[in-house]
Amino acid sequence: MVYYNFHMIHYLLELEESVLDNSTELRQVVYSVLLTQIQFGFYRYGEKLPAIEETSTRLCVSVDTARAAYLKLKTRGYITLIKNAGATVKVKYDSRETEQFIQTFFSARKHAMIDLGKSLQPLFGTAQWTGLKYAAPEDLQTMELLFSKEDAASPYAMLEHLNLKYRALGNHILMRLVWQSFMFLHNPFFSLRDNLRYFDRDADYLSAVLVFCREKDWSALRAAVAGSIEKLPSALIRFYEDRITTPPPEAETPFVWSSYKKSRQLCYSLAMELLTSISLGQYPVGSLLPSQEELARQKGVSVSTVRRALLLLDSIGAIKSAKYIGTRVLPFDKTAENSDFTRPVLQRRLMDMAESLQILALSCQAVSQLTLSSLNTTFVEQLCRDLKAHRQRRRGETLSYFLLGLIGNHAPYQTIRTVYTELLRQIFWAHAFHGMKGSADTIHAIYDPYYDTFIDSLEHLNFLRFSVTLEALILFELRCTVDYLLHFNVPGAENILVPDSSFR
Q1: What local confidence, expressed as pLDDT, does residue 149 receive?
Q2: pLDDT by residue (tens digit) across 268-321?
Q3: Strand, helix or coil at 40?
Q4: Which are the contacts of 71, defined by CB distance < 8 A and separation ≥ 6?
Q5: Chain center to CA of 18
Q6: Which CA distances in Å does 241 have to 40, 185, 244?
Q7: Could you give the angle at the alpha carbon of 370 between the alpha carbons of 369 and 371, nearest 5°?
Q8: Per-residue pLDDT, 9
Q9: Is 461 left (phi over 0), alpha (psi -120 to 50) or beta?
Q10: 288 phi and psi angles, rounded to 5 deg
């Protein structure tokens, strides 16, 4: 087996992390947002675009990223860009051209947009309610001032409002997901000013929300948040019925989201596959993994991908590589003591994991109830058998991952399946903390009551009880995770909001 330098690879991974914001993909998204607004007539010939710095702030990207998008618009002939004068729309589209842009854009995204719209409440409803519940008074005041401005209905103002709603959660991954959802759905939809007619303009949603927050009327706040979110998919369906006459193309544009750069996804997927094999005993504790070359051949990937995957497993204490010996599988309950929690790259990934857990904790009740209710009885019975089989393996510390995987894979909306798949990739890093909850007997004592409730709930088709218990389990895992991060002095852990068990 070829021996590799873990320290050098760690350095390269950390360097890669530091340049994430300057990715071509991110610049392309900003460019596409601005171009769409020009082509839809949101910004017309002779009108000024927001300043580069303002776009940077509004879209949560660096100034360099925003500037690159503006320069591309200039190079393509869409705007003029003059120092001290700003950006001005250069192209002049007639009504026929604008309509064609609109028809082509929305027809290609019809099913994905509607699917995303229907996914908003189960994915974000509780998170938005919780963010508002714990919002600082100054953030509530800023929201009030924001929507008193003339451009209160603009996509940018809406995005700023969303940022304020979720700020208290201290969750960067959630904000990236919210941002991506906004760019795919809200921004193009509300870039058509006429689309406001699909909503009740007389309903003073914001004022009511602010009153409920200040009076701490959390039940009324929950109803108001849910009612507001649920208006969008209904409006979207009416918009497609009324306005979009062009049939969808054979290959539509899907909603995609990834918290990792594409170049790293294969590496993380392989690492998770190997870890799963270790957990199932295919590579027993104390045994040597196949050589890098053999793993590359078996998995159909490059040797460099294998090296990076093994590095990840080493950083969370699952394996240990030694020169002239190979890569040995370490005991499952010794991962924490074999992990190096001082490495910045591991600290960042542990923060990603904690933030992903928070999203799952705040969405799993709604998502699991929705999912289980959509399945037939035969399928639910199979889920129950799968759960009993998992219990027999006596790996209670992986129960949350197992259940969330089942729920996410069978959710009725593709958006939820996409998001849950990505969030569960982050839970991979929880392996670093295995063994910190105590002995095997302690683990069983913690998780056996959860197994009992889940199995009984499925057998009696009590999906509400199942979903409430799942939320309690994920909140428990979130609290433990944040405590571990604080114990190891991981920067940023203190900012992650952990609702107490009675937060509802």
Answers
A1: 62
A2: 778 878 887 887 778 998 999 999 999 999 999 999 999 988 988 888 888 988
A3: coil
A4: 81
A5: 20
A6: 19, 17, 7
A7: 90
A8: 37
A9: left
A10: -100, 135
DSSP one-letter code for 99: H
* Separation between Cα atoms, residue 205 and residue 174, nearest integer Å: 23
CA geometry: angle at 257 spanning 253 and 261, to 5°? Answer: 115
Q: CA 130 → CA 163, 170, 249, 358, 400, distances in Å?
A: 13, 12, 39, 11, 22
Q: Indicate the DSSP class of residue 79.
A: E
Which residues does 383 contact at the CB level (< 8 Å), separation at least 6? Answer: 375, 406, 458
Residue (of 258, 264, 339, 302) closest to 14 by Cα position: 264
Residue type, 421: T
Separation of alpha carbons 125 and 159, rounded Å: 16
Q: Which residues pair with 326 in a beta bridge?
A: 322
Identify whether the C-beta of residue 477 lies closer than 8 Å to the C-beta of residue 498: no
Torsion of CA 245, 254, 119, 462, to 10 degrees: 120
Model-level pTM? 0.86
Contact by Cβ (8 Å): 437, 446: yes
What tokens does 44 get? 């017309």
Q: How far apart are CA 132 and CA 165, in angstroms?
A: 5
Strands 326-329 and 319-322: antiparallel
With tokens 């309950």, the residue in question is 333
pLDDT at residue 19, as a whole number = 36
The answer to whether the CB of 107 falls within 8 A of the CB of 240 is no
- List the beta bridge partners of residue 82: 86
What is the pLDDT of the chain when averaged over all its residues?
87
pLDDT reading at 461 higher than 80: yes
* Model confidence pLDDT, tens digit, residues 90-124: 999 999 999 999 999 999 999 999 999 999 999 99
pLDDT (tens digit per residue) in 350-360 = 999 999 999 99
- Residue 426: C-alpha distances to residues 219, 274, 337, 384, 475 (Å): 32, 15, 21, 25, 16
Round to whole Å and give the CA distance between 364 and 77: 46
Comparing C-alpha atoms, which of 474, 442, 480 is closest to residue 466?
474
Picking from 350, 339, 315, 286, the residue whose alpha carbon sits closest to that of residue 491 is 350
Q: Please check the confidence at residue 65 and state whether its pLDDT lies above 70.
A: yes
Q: If you count them, how many residues does the chain have?
A: 504
Return phi, psi of residue 203, to 5°: -75, 120
What is the rounded (10 degree) CA torsion for 390, 393, 394, 400? -30
Tokens found for residue 61: 């990207």
Return the ∠ at Cα 253 (arms to 249 and 256), rounded to 5°: 160
**What are φ and ψ of residue 151, in 5° steps?**
-95, 30
- Rounded Cα distance between 201 and 82, Å, is 38
The answer, yes or no, to whether residue 397 has pLDDT greater than 90, is no
